[in-house]
Amino acid sequence: MHRFAEIIREQQEELRAQLKEGKFIEREVLPRFAKLMDSSLIKVITGVRRCGKSVLSAQLLEGKKYGYVNFDDEKLMGIKTEELSGLLESVYEVYGKVDFLFLDEVQNVSGWELFVNRLQRQGLNIVVTGSNAKLLSRELATHLTGRHTAFELFPFSFREFLKYEGIMPEAATTKETGLIKKRLGEYIKSGGFPETLKEPNPKSYLKSLYSSILLKDILLRHRVRYVRTFRDLASYVMTNFAREVSFNKLKNIFNLGSDHTAKNYLSFLEESYLIFLIERFSYKKKESLVENRKSYVIDTGMIRAVSFRFSEDFSHVYENVVAIELLRRKNQEQEVYYWKNPQQEEVDFVVKEGLMVKQLIQVCYDIEDTKTKDREIRALIKAGRDLRCKNMLVITEGKEGEEKLSWFGIKAEVRFMPLWKWLLLSQ
Fold first, then answer.
1. What are the helix and strand counts (H, E) for the chain?
2. Which of 94, 100, 20 is nearest to 60 (CA)?
3. Measured distance CA(243)–CA(334) in Å, rounded
4. Is the Cβ–Cβ distance between 261 and 251 less than 8 Å?
5. Which residues is 340 bridged to in the sheet?
6. What would the pLDDT profile of 65-83 be if each residue is shown by its tens digit?
7. What whole-number distance in Å separates Cα of residue 335 and Cα of residue 380?
8. Bridge partners of residue 67, in order along the sequence
9. Is residue 10 within 8 Å of residue 260, measured between CB atoms?
10. CA atoms within 13 Å, Cβ hemisphere of 86
11. Tell me: the pLDDT tens digits for 328-374?
12. Are 113 and 128 in contact (CB under 8 A)?
């Protein structure tokens, strides 16, 4: 027996046990992904650790002959490129003839893309998952051009969260609608990582997951020298979510050598899927690149686990929920920005499709305050005028309806929708 065979067999048993014992739902992306399973293209699924990539892949491969290798196993740490052929031999030894090969957390193997490329040319249908956005995209662009299709998976959406709890929003009764509103608070508090729905202490689980991501996906991979400084910066960014981040400000706060170091540290957080950076909207691409970005955290449960400003910051929490949902729904033609004018008036989200601005979205937890409402609507209407967009939406805690409004002679019709209802809209 090849030395890898026992490892492959153990992983096979672990995956079977996980699929047999766990409670699973069909992820919303599954039908779209499933259509491509019989294509010869290499299927690449990326996303933050523990968001469900492995289970989704196994669901996609159900009923098919496939072999499974998990490269996040410490027994395979440090495996060399020249050993991959022996690993493949062990897969056949354990599984027999397979049509598909499922390679989990493949970014842990140096040279994986050349190996996968060779297997695809030999006729194997390949599914790979990874927790590093930039690393995979660089390798894919370099070696798998035109021979792969890539998807991003996020933690559970609110719709998936409800489905896991046995609530079907599309057929909700009055009583269930009340339950849905209550569950929104639970979803925001615990987040959408699948394991948190089974964990007795979700906050402790998420704190541990956060530490694991920092260690495995950033500190070790990038060989960060100033570990304490990086951890402090990461904590600062996770706490100051839904706000603009400045490379220069981070450099000064943490006494970094240059703006470039601050930019690198942020990119490490972004490529591990802990945060997303959204650019300021400008028709001139060069301008949007030099402006500050706004940063959002992958999951509000994660924010609560590691931040010290969660409970007092509900307006920004709502904004973070909307940001991640917009990124989850985004198709290949869409881009998401924020808008700000020289008077520092701001609109939270600009959804652009092709050359057109499709929708403007303002998030306001408490729209009943007159000063707050005037400020938010004024910015929205000005952005609508400047960007020639009449589709204006304000996402609120409870207000619903439409209002015809005018500001400085600019007339507009603005929709208001509660967050819980907006989150249940189909993709």
1. 17, 14
2. 100
3. 22
4. yes
5. 346
6. 999 999 999 999 989 989 9
7. 18
8. 101
9. no
10. 13
11. 999 888 999 999 999 999 999 999 999 999 999 999 999 988 999 99
12. no
